[in-house]
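Next up, sample data:
>
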Amino acid sequence: MSFSIGQRWVSQAEFDLGLGTVIKVDNRFVQVLFPGAEETRQYAIEQAPLMRVEYSIGDTITSMEGFEFTVSEVETVGDILIYHGQREDNEEVVSVKEIMLDHHVRLNNPEARLFTGAYDRKHWFSLRLEAHQKKAELETFSLHGLLGARVSLIPHQLYIADTVGKRFAPRVLLSDEVGLGKTIEAGLIIHQQLISGRASRVLVALPESLQHQWLVEMLRRFNLKFAIFDDQRCEAESESDPSKNVFENEQLIFVSHEWLSHPGKWQSTLANTDWDLVVVDEAHHISPPENNKNDDSANTLYEHIQDIGKATKGLILLTATPDQLGHYGHFTRLQLLDPNRFHDYASYQKEELEYKAVADIANKLLSLDELDPSEVKALSLLLDDESSLAQINEYQSSSDKSSTSQRLIADLLDRHGTGRIMFRNSRQGIKGFPERKVFEYPLARPAEFAPGIELLGMHPELRHKPQSDSLVTWSQIDPRVKWLCEFLLENKDEKVLVICAHANTAMQLDDALFEREGLRSTVFHEGMTIVERDKAAAYFADEEKSAQALICSEIGSEGRNFQFAHHLVLFDLPANPDLLEQRIGRLDRIGQTQTVKIHVPYIEGSAAQNLFKFYHQAFNAFEQTSTTARVVFEQNLNAIQQQVLNSQDIESLNTLIEQCDIANQALKLEVEQGRDRLLEINSSGGEQAKQICETIEEIDDSTELMSFMTQIWDHFGVNTEEKSDYSFILKAGEHMMTDHFPALQNDGMTVCFERDIALSQEDQHFLSWEHPMTTGVLDMLTSSDLGNTSVCLLKNKKLPAGTYFVEINFLITTNAPRNLQLHRYLPNTPIRMMLDKNGNDLAPKVKQGSLDESLKNVKKTMATQLIGALKPEVIKLLEIANQKVQPFVDEITSAAKQNLIDNREQELNRMKALQAINPSIRDEEIEFLQHQLDHCVAEIDAAQVQLDAIRLIVADNS
């Protein structure tokens, strides 16, 4: 190497030092100043890890004075380079000596890195290209956003999430019956909106009692970290910067109904904050002032939600009882969603009568019954286009009506009914739930239990009245503990979920089982961290050397899925039927393979016995889901509390049970008659819902992701230990390439690629293409310079030594904002080329990755020599590649534009036609679609192609 003062060099060992300048040279050493890093290095000339920085004609570089210019000529004077060119800002012709170049220049583009000797090992080039391809596939995948959730693949849930999640600023009411997964549906929608870029700021308003459940669900199932805001949190956030809106410090926020029901400056601030999506759980609590005449807090809550709903783009309301608590209240919640559409209650009532007529015809079509003349006329008015009228005639005349029926029903769903703004599924319409059977166990009352203390939900230890010198605890004399021990011993091969009201009870019960019989059990309560709960759930779920029983406090009904167990012990009974249903719902789920056996031990003559009798005889609440039980229960709350606690007045209790049973049956009949079958058909998704599940199942069954991630862990230096066929224990390696590997926890973590394992082993992270670790790796590989240069030897005796190829990856990019959703049609798209010395593209013949096993990494000295010797040839091939790539770019962008126009215009025309007969479609949606179409076409036309990676391959037949 020949050095002269003033030359610019870069350190191949320390690229982060930037551009260096030779400041001293003698016979043995060269001294280089790196101004950007304010460092000076001295190297032995013979072994200096330095590469000369030489720019070529066409390069754009920056001078020390800050202006950019494009090189038109390179002149050598002595040993110093002088660059001649034209300034970018004023087109002035300039000449700049290399010593006057900006030392902050980043040498991270592929050409600069290659020609300065900054190259990566062979595998990074291939992984980078694969990451670009996977990322592009994901962004154009129709179900993007639904792959990564740790949820069972339940058709109606995925259909609703897919339908709503793809909308711009969705405004809908999710009102599935209890146990059908409204929280999961909302989480899927939130996840899809966030991951697709349709939303970035989300607010969830919910009862304070449900905050923890939602916090755990969003984190464990969707990898979404929400922050809970109240007055204390707001004050703390305000202290750091009083001028800033405290709610802008987080993207994902929970607030409670109770907090929102009070007036205050923070509540006002919240209403004036911009949100992309607002979700309101238990929305039946949001009642209009007419229903809350003497309840100031309820009115305040309604006003705050109304203000937030008006200001936000997307609004989702969740309730299992949309209109059972008042029809007018239901109308006002629809009005919150779309005040223009639902502007008048009388008009809405009239419109509902028309929905019933549509539903009646839909029922006829579902049953494949022939339509009478009046029904044909009514259907012809509803579907009055030429194609639909022909289908109606075909339906009437055909003996096989099934296919025509489905088409007509699809048209009815598309053009009429409430299905666009409201989704509701019932257990009658959704199949797959198990049977439930209850077993009661009356137990004799111990003398040690204090009489007359029968408050529901009280701690068992308070019922025990020990002598002052007695060391006997409640668990030693409570007959339910002895019964539970015997039950577990009799069913030693069965998993048993035990739920009681309080954490203290659960912990003492766990101790008692071990002390009495050495039984293996574990606890699950609100005093544990999320990690501790996951470990407890995993210990219960394991098949070998695991807990036979999981003993939960009331939090055990928070949404965990324990459907691998079939026995549920209710150690005590909750104080309302909703909580009872939530407890049973841990096992009574779609996918449960056996009858759910519910075991209820109680002390004879106690309030618990009365409550069991009441739930069982008034509502049949143990063996059937009752969506009406809560309404009847709340209507008779005072009488129920009085009679249940009065264990002596059996006659009054029986009278009350009979009254509540009659009221419940009447309400059930009213609800059944009011079922909107058309709405339920639309909400369940039918064949489309099944297809969504099948598509995701195919991706789940593929081992492609596991193969990709195991390579990534190996190359980045993450320590892996195989736990099972599809599970791995990950820990940070001592020599990892990066200090912060995406989503890798400090103390390690267990990941799995199997959905069923993730659902039963909740301490394992479900690794999918949408998990933060996977998306983080894809971002890291595609946004950094890692893998954008490589120099390799190709072991092939058939090729003459010195034969070379340049493998080139281009990338089509746009600068479109994320909310345009252009990435669904034209993501950052890689184009691979492989040129021989004559500029012939061999990529169609040499399959991607086919040479990788035959390639060998090159030592630095040889790589520097190869790069230096072949630099002129590589520059020429890059120029040829730039010309050859343009037809590929034109073809890809043209196809993307046509696909965009076909899809967006089809949807736009459909929405315009539907708006004439379905007022729930807002003008804003149509305007948004038109704006997106015009803007997207312009962005595709402005798409650019850039060089993303270069691999120099030289044949070696030695």
